[in-house]
Amino acid sequence: MTARSLAKSVAFALAGFAGVLVVGAVVLRVAVSNQDVHAAVFSALGRDAGRSFAAGNLRVVAWPRPAALFEDVAMRGEGPATFTAPSLTATLKLLPLLSGRVEVDELVLDQPEITWSVAGGPLVPAAPGGSAPDIRINGGRIDIDGPDGAIERLEDVTAEIEHGSTAITLSGTMRLRDEPIEAYLSIGDAAAFARGARSAVRFKMTAPAATLAFDGHAVFNRTLQLEGAVAADSSALRTALAWFDLDPVVRGGLGRFALKGDLAVSGRQFALRDASLELDGNRAEGGLTVRFENGQPIVQGTLAAETLTLTPYIVDVAPRRTGGWNSDRFDTSALTAANADIRLSAGRIVFGQASLGHAAGAVLLRGGRLSLTLGEAEAFDGMLRGTLELASNPEGVELRVDAVASDIDLDRFGQTLFGARRFEGRGALVVGLAGQGASPAAMARSLTGEVKVNAGAGALTGVNIEQILRRIEKRPLAGTGDLRGGRTAFNRLAVQVRVTDGVATCDDVVMEGPAVRVVVFGTASVGERTLDLKGNAGLVRAAGAGFELPFIIRGPWDSPSVVPDAESLIRRSGAAAPLLERAVRRDEPAAAGPSTAANGAVPAVEGAGGLASDTP
């Protein structure tokens, strides 16, 4: 084809197109009335009984495309959606105009204010055979209402709704709760979906705080039903929850979050199967169901994980650097936020300084009462089973702990639970304690119950009782300063302690070793973390009775003072007997004071020169 013939072809095509436009313009002016255009637009928007469409002014133009320009439009009455807008542009199909028919190709709403009642049906009506026009929204606002009132408001909505032969696709940008989001929704069979039948559905929403995607099927018949694959992702779940005014109830954690699984939704019931969850570095697999009763969620499920780190979610009850318990008030909102029944298994669970291995248990939360049941787990290099119950009350929190541990590492146990390392070795433990209070400090002062410990070969750290006894046996008044340091080996340790209102009473505490035997009695304040104990330590000899010495343990848990009984020391020294008699007559009350024993000195003993603090 030559250039001249090509130019002629283009000219004929343009002339033909111009001719069609001219004919269309003539038909538009002569054969099509404003009432026809109004009716066509009303039909495209979803004409139905009980609905009305009104416009303040209508202007029909033919160039560059046939279009109807409406001003001050309003769609009111019954139906899922109503709106008002300052302007609406309806682009008309050209070919139907040539035969005198009006068909709308596209609708453009500028700054509309739309109200959508989700109980009334889909926002956009479906038309058979893809005859519905495409719809564009520029800078609009959509108020979403439910049966109980307003649900959400979307602002700065710029979106496009495209109709295929059977499908509807919605895509665009908007602001939700002052955050920009991008959304996409595809309904495979719009007509079926509109009449309450099953249809393929794809959805994706991207926001600064989170991303949510769904690919499956849906039915909308008074309530929404979904079935398909779901995926959610958030770099900061706490931020995403706050975006929807949801309080995560726990003060720590809730950073990185990811979820994948098969989702089934029926009204206000959700089921997640074959799920993979990630939260704050924890990964778990399993299934969950959620339903709502009286506005409160009920969660049930089974989860399994390799490692769970619960430290960020645990209330800090550890002692302060000053030596006292944490006095911050418990936050009990988590106990009443939901009801739950979850079965959990993990290769390792970490919380604070403690960890459990190969743990299997259950979490039951109902009516503000939390029950944690541990079937069996590896703990402190031994085995542990037990229950922990927490309940919210007007005074704070009620606590109940029942636990049985076997073959545990006593050093790790003491360091983890009490912040003190006093015993080496392995043993068995039985704990039954209850208390209540508004803070960890108040809880410690209210504890009541019983603790039993039995151990085989091990050692008491922080003091060498055998060395002390042998030194005092030889020189009763020399070297009796601070006797801390060293370790004392034992073959058997038996502890039975009664706890009442935060005060532990030692009923039976016996430590027997190859060289010494120690019996302890007295009290220990759990609330104040102090000791006020007395005991008797004796050297074990093969023949006859060994040397024995009463002693006193007083002071804070972390660094108690262990000193011999001063009167016993002086009585064992014949040369000091007159001094003792004068001291007791002159200052007997002072001799009995706590500070006396704690300092390892005998007050009012004139000429004694004090007690040496050197160590041989």
From TrEMBL:
This protein's name: AsmA family protein
GO annotation, biological process: regulation of protein targeting to membrane
GO CC terms: plasma membrane
Compositionally biased tracts (Low complexity): 590-601
Disordered: annotated segments: 585-616
InterPro entries (alphabetical): AsmA, AsmA-related
Coiled coil regions in record: none
Domain of life: Bacteria
The AsmA domain, residue ranges: 325-508
Classification of source organism: Bacteria, Pseudomonadati, Pseudomonadota, Alphaproteobacteria, Hyphomicrobiales
A Pfam match: AsmA
